[in-house]
Amino acid sequence: TVTNSNIASGELVEVLSVTKTAVRDTYLVGEDVTYAVSILNSGAVPFTGLTVTDDLGAYTVGATTVTPLTYGEGSVRYYVNGVLQAAPAVVAGPPLQISGISVPAGGNALILYEAQVNAFAPPVVGGEVINEVTLSGGGITPVTATETVNAAIGPDLSITKTITPAQVADNGRVT
Q: CA nearest 98: which of 151, 42, 39?
């Protein structure tokens, strides 16, 4: 007996994935945080014309949206399979938009950039900045990744030492 069937079973798996990582997991207001957005294409077809949109940690206070991160102008570095590429188009925002991203078949792209922590970031212990990126364009369903950076625990202390007067006269000793 011969049976013909057009029924197939399988599992659909996303071929394009994105992760976001902060180089340091704590912040102080006024410091820079370096972010790495990694895009992996496990499929057999390249993706072009992609855009990474970073909300810069935006959150709502009452009826106002505030942004605790400010993009560090000119800080974007874009790599494809480990090779530095020409800088993509950047709109500082908020939100930050980095467009013109391509990921080859079976390859990866890495985008590095800095954002300065501003006065809208909670400076207290337990404070955090939750930052989300969305990868879109190129005919894909948008993919998101989130990274949380916590307020640094401990005092923000600096010590400066000076000599007064600035110049000291020779006391006549021979050395």
A: 39
Nearest to 97 by CA among 71, 116, 128: 71
**What's the chain look like in SS3?**
CCCCCCCCCCCCCCCEEEEEEECCCEECCCCEEEEEEEEEECCCCCEEEEEEEECCCCEEECCEEECCEEECCCCCEEEECCEECCCCEEECCCCEEEEEEEECCCCEEEEEEEEEECCCCCCCCCCEEEEEEEEEECCCCCEEEEEEEEECCCCCCCCCCCCCCCCCCCCCCCC
Would you write out the chain's pLDDT as a tens digit for each of its 175 residues?
Answer: 666 666 655 544 568 999 999 999 889 888 999 999 999 999 999 999 999 999 999 998 889 999 999 999 999 999 999 999 999 999 998 999 999 999 999 999 999 999 999 999 887 777 899 999 999 998 899 999 999 999 887 665 678 877 776 666 666 665 5
Of 16, 6, 1, the C-alpha closest to 134 is 16
Record the pTM: 0.78
For residues 131 and 124, give the distance between their C-alpha atoms in angstroms, rounded to a whole number: 18
